[in-house]
Structures are given as C-alpha cells and as structure tokens.
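> example.struct
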C-alpha cells in the first residue's frame, strides 16, 4: 500500500482520482469536490469538501471525512465504507446511492472517546407498492432491511 498526500490544493480545486489501486491518499484542507473513478482498495482521507465527494465504479474503497462534506454520491460501487469523524457527524452529509452493494457508513459511538464506532449498512434493495386505479396511480417505496 502506498501512502500519498495531495499537496497544494485550494478551495477552487476539484480532485479527480482515477483507477487508483491499493493506495492511501490524504487530501488536507478544503477543496471544491473529490471524485474517485474506477478505484480498487483505495482509502481517501480528507478534511473538507465544499460540494460533493463522488465514487463511481469503485470496489473495496474507504472514504474518511475529518471535518465536513455536505454530500456523498456513490454509483456502481461495491464494498464502500464512508467514515465520518465526530466533527463531520455533527452535520452529516446527504448520501445519494445508485447500483451499490456492501456499502456502510461508520459513525462515532455515543461516547466517541470510549465507545466503538457504529457501522450502518446502506440499503441495497427497495420494495415499491403500486396503488390507486386507472389514471390515478401512486407508488410507495420503502427500503428492505435484512436482519440487524
């Protein structure tokens, strides 16, 4: 595993990580956005993103937010873990997912100094029920949870 630090980043920068494999990448400070595309077994540790952290087509990747991220988008990815520090969990991001599997969010325990973090799986399946009648159809979609 190679450790890499992205230096010289600024608020106006978009960081794009393409086909990274078996790396730990640290991005200090504030950046506009971070995108991971086609990465495998890569961990990205960052301080703050102003808009979105995005993963597309990634496998077994970890994202660690130390300060803040307003939005996380995960698409066509499996084995993803998003970890929020105590600071980042104070204002948790909106998480938008599409075509995912084995994806978890890790949040601080009740007492972050003593308790283990809490791992929450994101839903992979949904149940949509159709109701109504001709011309006035409605749908109600709920997530399907297994165990836990």
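> example.seq
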């Amino acid at each position: 595993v190679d450790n890499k630090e992205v230096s010289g980043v600024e608020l106006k920068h978009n960081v794009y990580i393409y086909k990274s494999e078996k790396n730990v990448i640290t991005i200090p400070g504030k950046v506009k956005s971070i995108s991971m595309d086609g990465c495998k077994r890569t961990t990205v540790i960052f301080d703050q993103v102003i808009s979105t952290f995005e993963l597309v087509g990634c496998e077994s990747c970890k994202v660690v937010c130390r300060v803040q991220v307003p939005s996380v988008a995960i698409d066509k990815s499996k084995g993803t873990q998003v970890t929020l520090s105590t600071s980042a969990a104070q204002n948790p991001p909106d998480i938008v997912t599409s075509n995912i599997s084995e994806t978890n969010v890790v949040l601080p325990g009740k007492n972050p100094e003593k308790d283990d973090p809490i791992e929450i799986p994101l839903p992979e399946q949904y149940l949509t029920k159709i109701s109504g009648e001709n011309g006035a159809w409605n749908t109600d979609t709920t997530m399907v949870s297994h165990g836990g």
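> remarks
The longest strand covers residues 23-31.
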